[in-house]
Every structure is written in C-alpha cells, then in structure tokens.
C-alpha cells in the first residue's frame, strides 16, 4: 500500500506499492524528496551486502540536506545527488544502457519522478510489472496538455493553466506510461471564459 | 471444437526421416493455394484417423513463417506413448490427405525484447527453428543453446549450426556437456528475454535459476505440451448435455467428450492454453490435475478442471458441459 491513499480511479491510473528487497546482482534506487524515507525504511530489513550492489540516484528537492547524510551512511556502491530529474536524466539513461538482466529497480517519491524513471526503465527493456514503486510525499501531478503537448510539472490545482499555451485545463486521471504524464483537457472550449473555480486538490 | 480455429485440408507433400527418432512431415494445401500465415512458436493440431479412433495431436510448426507454401512439423516417435506419434511415423505417407487446424501461437516471441535467448532440449527445438527464421528476416538478435542426447540424435543441430554460425551452441549429453545457465544468464543485456522448450525439469530449472538471479517473470517464456496421462477409467455426468460417459484408461476426458459428440472447446490439448477449462458441478472423489493452467488456489477450490489432460478418481463427477 502507498502511504497516500489514492481514491479508486480508472485502470490507466498507476498504483503504487511498498518497496521490498528482491534478489539480484545489481540494484538501482531512484528517489526524490521524502522518497528517501522509503529507502531508509527498506534498509531496516535489508541484508548487509545489499548496499555494495546498489546505486542510489537522489533528488532532494525542497528537503535539502535532510536525508542525504542518512542515505550516504547506507554506503551504497554509487550515489548521485542532483537538483532535478532533468539533471539526473543522462545518468539514469546511461545506467540502464549499461545494465544487465537481473537489475532490480526501486522507484520512490513523487509520481512525476517515478513515472519518468519508469519510462526510462521500460525503454531499456524492463517489463513495467517488474519495477517496484512506492509513493511518498506530494501528490502533485505531471500533466500533458493534450492540445499543445506541452508538459507542466507539479500541478496541484484543478483546473490549471497550461504553462505552454495558456489554455484552462481539466485534470484527468488518464495516464500515459510513455510520457509519464496525466492528460489535461481544455475545460472551456465551448464556452470560453466559463472556468470553474480552481481548487487545490493535490498537495 | 477447436475454439476460433478453422480446419485446413492438407496433403502430405513429404515424409522425411531426420534420425532414429524424428521424422519431418510437410503439408501443402489440398488443391493448391497458400496456407494461413503464422508466427514463430505457433502449433497446429493434426487430426489422425486411426481406425475408429480420431487422434488430435499438437505439433509446433518448424517451417519458415515467411513461407506460406507449406507447413512442416517434426514428430518424435514415442514407443511408450498413446499412439499419436507412432501413427504419424507408421501410417502417414506422401500423398495422404489430412486435416490440420489453423495455427495457434502460445509461445510467441516478445517483440519488445532487445535480445532473444533460446534454450532447447531435444524435440523442444522445433518452435525455435521457425522463430529463428522469423528473427533472421528482421535482423533480430538471438542466441540458441540446444541440449541434445547424442550428436546422431541432435535433431537439426548440424543444419542450424551451419545456417546460424556463431549463434547456435550445441551441448551433447553423452559427452557430459551441460548448459552453464548461471554464467549464461549473468551479464545478458537489459531487455533480454528467455525462451525455453524441452523436458519439464529443464523448464523448471530455467524458471527457478532466472528468478534467483532477479530476472522478471515476464521475461521468461516456456512451452511444454503434455500428453494426456493414463489412469483408472472413470464415469462422468454432464449437466448441460445430460449424458453419462465413460472415460477409458488411455483416453483423456476431452477425447471421451468428443467420442460422445459433445462439442467441447480446446486449443492446445496439452494443458497449457486454458481454452478447455470446465466447471465442476459436483465432485465426490479426487480431481487429478495434470495441467499447468490452473493456479494452486483454483486446484484446491475443486471447482475447475482441464479435460484435455486431467482426470478423476472417485464416485461421482458432474461437469458443466
């Protein structure tokens, strides 16, 4: 179960589980913000030799230095700390390109980062059902505008204004695994300007 | 009734002994014309009129999927079996007219894979022959590791080694050569899928080893058709058709249904596909499951049976057919 209880939705909406250690010669953990807590929780029952086979990619975001020390103390074989998923992307892609079968992938934190890392893992050839995820922290969504195709990160309200084309978009639960984004659809197409009040639904 | 698959009238164009155990049969469409297209790993169910008995055995298509002019299957003779393979070996001659089903694929390549790692044991080579032909048309990356008893019984081992040099690795049992599976799996690039076809023990070994090494379940594919097991004769009542039928010692439940004009669905006839799944209405006795379709919970539940391979021991069995 995820720490955030998401209301029941349509089938395409991702569901998240709880990370557990699985057998494998190499382990890749990608986390952002409070996702670090999921890794630290996993560490409580993890075998001692796990960390020597583990590569952690961590994006602290607004948590600053809070978890970095504790993650380093796990003594992973490799650890990267970076400012954004964009900044870490090249490392993620490169890690998958050089990886072998048997690699275990653990994703935790916000939906945006888990989704993008999962898309990279799928493109590298890992079946999506074999990738572990655990949601932690903000429920803000990565949204694609279905009209201009622009992506707006960390959307917390419904409706919201597309950061690319300026349309008023309704937040749908329809999810694209390829884009790692939910879909936003114009809410006032037939009656321009008739926009319901913005509500902060994701925090 | 084979669900969703039409029958094809074919003529035997060639019967070619490959070695002491295996014979290859080539079928062309009776009256000419192309056969339906298929993908590597597909099988066809061959109907055999053996006196008053109709035998229906599934065989993997081993011809090139790009060649729609003919189908080829290779049949390993089983002297201890129920008679299907012996019929093929002893009775089927060039020029004979036969009926086969449209191809069905329960062992297809996952074309999302970046590399295909194939493991074959004995006659389990046949689906791979078609798959390798298919992949070589598209420059697909593959590797075959093929375990045979002896060089003389290594069906197609020599031909394949020549045709796909550097991609085919043969292991001879009599020379104590074994596939070093752990080393083989270690270091395979991300996106590799495993395909295994051979004896039950080999399939289990591959699944278990891959799982221990952290391979995703979805990246390991296997195929094993079971011959229906013999057992004590039993009686079955059919709720829908209101019949009581006897299942003989060497007859499968599905064959007994068919012999009594019950139109039961099937596809693989080997316990693998799930098409013949039948609801058990009443059961006073023990269901003897041989399939690899039902889950352990479903078996314990006692409400389902696969008539193509599974049997019953006890007093009363009522099925929803």
Largest interface: A-B, 18 and 20 residues
Alpha-carbon distance between the two ends of chain A: 19 Å
Main beta sheet of chain A: strand number and arrangement?
Answer: 5 strands, parallel
Radius of gyration of chain A: 18 Å
> What's the total count of β strands of chain B?
17
User: Unreliable segments of chain A (pLDDT under 50, ≥5 consecutive)?
Assistant: none
List the helices and strands and how they pair.
The complex is a heterodimer of chains A (203) and B (321).
Chain A: E1 26-32, H1 35-45, E2 54-59, H2 68-73, E3 78-81, H3 85-98, E4 103-109, H4 111-124, E5 132-135, E6 141-145, E7 151-155, E8 157-158, E9 160-161, E10 168-176, E11 181-186, E12 199-200
Parallel strand pairs in A: 1-2, 1-4, 2-3, 4-5, 6-11
Antiparallel strand pairs in A: 6-7, 8-12, 9-10, 10-11
Chain B: E1 7-17, E2 22-29, E3 42-50, E4 53-60, E5 71-76, H1 84-91, E6 97-101, E7 104-105, E8 115-121, H2 126-137, E9 142-148, H3 157-163, E10 168-172, H4 181-185, E11 192-197, H5 200-212, E12 220-223, E13 234-238, E14 243-247, H6 253-259, E15 278-288, H7 296-301, E16 304-305, E17 311-319
Parallel strand pairs in B: 8-9, 8-11, 9-10, 11-12, 13-17
Antiparallel strand pairs in B: 1-2, 1-6, 2-5, 3-4, 3-6, 3-7, 13-14, 15-16, 15-17
